[in-house]
Amino acid sequence: MQTTKPALLILAAGMGSRYGGNKQIDGFGPNNETILEYAIYDAIQAGFGKVVFVVRAEILDLVKDRFLDKINDLIQVEFVIQSLTSLVPAAYQNPERTKPYGTAHAVLCAKEVIEEPFAVINADDFYGKEAIDRLGKFLTHPQGDHQHCMVGYALKNVLSQHGTVNRGVCDANDKGELTGMTEREKISREGEKVISRMGEDVLEISENTPVSMNCWGFQPSFFAETEKRWKVFLEENKDNSKAEFYIPTVVNDLIAESKASVRILEGGKTWFGVTYPEDKVTVEEALNFMHQKGVYPGKLWEPKKVRM
Length: 308
Description:
Helix content: 25-40%
Shape: globular
CATH superfamily: Spore Coat Polysaccharide Biosynthesis Protein SpsA, Chain A
CATH class: Alpha Beta
Number of strands: 13
Strand content: 25-35%
Oligomer: single chain
Number of domains: 1
Order of helices and strands: EHEHEHEEHEEEEEEHHEEH
Distance between the termini: 20 Å
Largest sheet: 11 strands, mixed
CATH topology: Spore Coat Polysaccharide Biosynthesis Protein SpsA, Chain A
């Protein structure tokens, strides 16, 4: 059976406003490893052949300095820029906009350097070895042109101890395929319950509900479908300086229009991320524990520990 080495697309252009800095390049591991280095390490082991960083122009040199020497000999590396003018015709550029256009726009910025099936992850989230491995297996073997996937995580495992979070709450059919996602805001644990507060609306959500943590696997056809919707988004939001173009919005549209299927993969066992400064200690402790237990070697980038 013919196989293809997939690409790992890392969304690293976020502003980190709640964290207070460039968490994409901040060190958390015992040897000052960034969070995303673990995903890259796991991706190399899972058979990925390329890693693509989507970054802001102002941190491009910092990202290159942080990662290139470590991984350049292990996997193909590409960098692309997400800016306020990337793929935005002059007529739609809004001088009042200050933040990037969102995750689906970030994906679209990489369309010129990715021709193979690809995974998408956030730079500041730890997804776990199992998740990257499942994505690799799905994307490595032939699928239909419009058969995508995502790794689902139980809501109880993806909350923050230091504030509220937003999550894409998933619905699925009996085939284990995604039928839709609803973005729920300001989610936190309140006593024994998990609550979402959106204005005056208060919603209790089962703690075992699967949610999207932006851990996706796409066929290359996703670029063309996203680009069609990007043009519509720009026209509809030309006077809105805060509107964002999200991956779940595109995925929901494709499912509703029967233009794609999205399989929910098992593998969402371990997740932690950095949203607030207080999250750093928790992440450091978790990564140190994994090194101590042998999940990762003492030094992540010892050549003998990484297999191609």
